Amino acid sequence: MSSSMIIGQYVPGNSVIHRLDPRTKITIIFFFVLIVFFANSVMSYGLLTLFAVGSAVSTKIPANYLIKGLLPVWFLIVFTFILHLFVTKEGEVLFSIFTFDFYTGGFIQGLAISLRFFLLILVTSLLTLTTTPIEITDAIESMLGPLKKIRFPVHELALMMSISLRFIPTLMQETEKISKAQASRGVDFRTGPVKDRIKAVVPLLVPLFVSAFKRAEELAMAMEARGYQGGEGRTKLRELSIGRLDIYIYILFVLVIIGLFMTRS
Amino acid sequence: MDITFKDVSYIYQPNTPFEHRALSELSFHIRSGSFIAIIGHTGSGKSTLLQHLNGLLRPTEGEVTIGTYKISADEKTKNIKSLREKVGVVFQYPEHQLFEETVEKDIGFGPLNFHVDQEEIKRRTREAIKAVDLPEELLHRSPFDLSGGQMRRVAIAGVLAMDPNVLVLDEPTAGLDPRGQREVMDMFSNLHKEKKLTTVLVTHSMEDALRYADHIIILKDGKKHLEGPPLEVLVRKKELEHVQLDVPEVIQFLSEVEEKFGKTISYHNQNIAQLAKELAAMVKGGDDHE
């Protein structure tokens, strides 16, 4: 399961989407999430789907990998559809099973909502698939920059984010390592009564916490040893910059928005 | 227990962009009661191989047989738990797995999971702590109050207390001081003889492999590069250099002696003092001895 979950997993590449400034990606995704709720006609949905699927294709990430990776979310999408099918009672009766009637309204509504859902998840997962966590935090730090004026600790927030993102894989590895070591000593994490399985978590969590605290201390020491003293006057290795590519993409996106409002019914 | 690998391949995250073939078509046989060393560069598949020995990983292709247990891709292995009782694994930095309030409880944790009765656990705990050369007083201390070296020994005792037939060691001396390294390795060597264990040692150290193992397998990119008794394998300089390994110092030295003086001194696990005597005898007397 863990190996097939791709949300949050970066896939290296050199596509247009990979090369975009992370701020561009975040901005566009933010507005995309908003305008998805304005779509209400076949044409407008089509336009948004084209945009989302087109972006996904242009990343050159294999399609079956994307589809498989979103597997856990497929369940939600299908569930949403079925829920609408049962609950919405508008339009004409489409067909009925026993005495229960299914309406065209429910069918259309279900389809539309699941499609929205799918588009939202697809586009947002494209962000993490094509952007390294470091780029994302850099972008957030830069976009929250103006808040520094009201003494909001933007740099510290970004640092906290990047440290925790950085240590997710480390902690995952650590968890795997310790759970394997305990499994070798006869702990059964997979079968048996729920009570036993909850108990089996203790030999996993205790060593995990111990090493996490140790690691935090070591990291703090290493940072101090290298003279870290907060964001004041700190320069960056990679400066973010909006290039020509970003401008083209913005123009394309504005055209999509205009198109959306023209095709709404 | 006999251990057999038959055309074993293992692929991490198959069918994704992260697909990685860690083992490919690996076959070998380990006789019951032998001490074998598995050597290889980082990323050669040593750790992956090791995890097949107690069913933590199942081969993507091929079959692993350990005693009467069979592990293969399509069949679900029965009694995986009893296999794990018989194959004790000491992972790299095993002290990271300690979690109990007292050393005694931590050592007894393995046997407890395998439903060994209390009396027997008590007996084994004491035996294990003695085997790793720690004083019994430590049993009531918290494992987190101990020094790094002591924690390592407690963790090893925790594996020994399971009373395994096969002992799998993944670089058990990494991060210890030279003296500690020697002590820990000698301890494993003694246990191997006393309890007639089948021991599998994964290591970087050519010296340890030469000193303790009676059979060596060298891995390269998940494939078997060389295999055989230490004195046959560890003298093949060219092939070892090919996988960025060095001939052990003693062997290197003896072969240089042979080149310079035209006389052969064989290696039979002698220590430095013994070797010096043999050399002196050779230089002085010139009389033939093997």
From TrEMBL, chain A:
Domain of life: Bacteria
Membrane topology according to the record: Multi-pass membrane protein
Pfam family, one: CbiQ
Predominant location category: membrane
GO-annotated molecular function: transmembrane transporter activity
Membrane-spanning residues: 28-53, 65-87, 107-129, 247-263
Gene Ontology cellular component annotations, sorted alphabetically: plasma membrane
Keyword tags: Cell membrane, Membrane, Transmembrane, Transmembrane helix, Transport
PANTHER family: PROTEIN ABCI12, CHLOROPLASTIC (PTHR33514:SF13)
Homology family: Belongs to the energy-coupling factor EcfT family.
Subunit structure: Forms a stable energy-coupling factor (ECF) transporter complex composed of 2 membrane-embedded substrate-binding proteins (S component), 2 ATP-binding proteins (A component) and 2 transmembrane proteins (T component).
Protein role: Transmembrane (T) component of an energy-coupling factor (ECF) ABC-transporter complex. Unlike classic ABC transporters this ECF transporter provides the energy necessary to transport a number of different substrates.
Protein name: Energy-coupling factor transporter transmembrane protein EcfT
Annotated source species: Thalassobacillus cyri
Lineage: Bacteria, Bacillati, Bacillota, Bacilli, Bacillales
Automatic annotation (TrEMBL), chain B:
Keywords: ATP-binding, Cell membrane, Membrane, Nucleotide-binding, Translocase, Transport
UniProt cross-references to Pfam families, sorted A to Z: ABC_tran
Protein localization: Cell membrane
Record EC number: 7.-.-.-
Start and end residues of each ABC transporter domain: 3-246
Sample GO molecular function, one term: ATPase-coupled transmembrane transporter activity
GO cellular component: ATP-binding cassette (ABC) transporter complex
Record InterPro entries: AAA+_ATPase, ABC_transporter-like_ATP-bd, ABC_transporter-like_CS, ABC_transpr_CbiO/EcfA_su, ECF_ABC_transporter_ATP-bd, EcfA2, P-loop_NTPase
Membrane topology: Peripheral membrane protein
Keyword Zinc-finger annotated: no
Keyword Nucleotide-binding (UniProt): yes
Source superkingdom: Bacteria
Family annotation (Gene3D superfamilies): P-loop containing nucleotide triphosphate hydrolases
Major enzyme class: translocase
Function, in words: ATP-binding (A) component of a common energy-coupling factor (ECF) ABC-transporter complex.
Quaternary structure and partners: Forms a stable energy-coupling factor (ECF) transporter complex composed of 2 membrane-embedded substrate-binding proteins (S component), 2 ATP-binding proteins (A component) and 2 transmembrane proteins (T component).
Family recorded in the similarity comment: Belongs to the ABC transporter superfamily. Energy-coupling factor EcfA family.
The protein's name: Energy-coupling factor transporter ATP-binding protein EcfA2
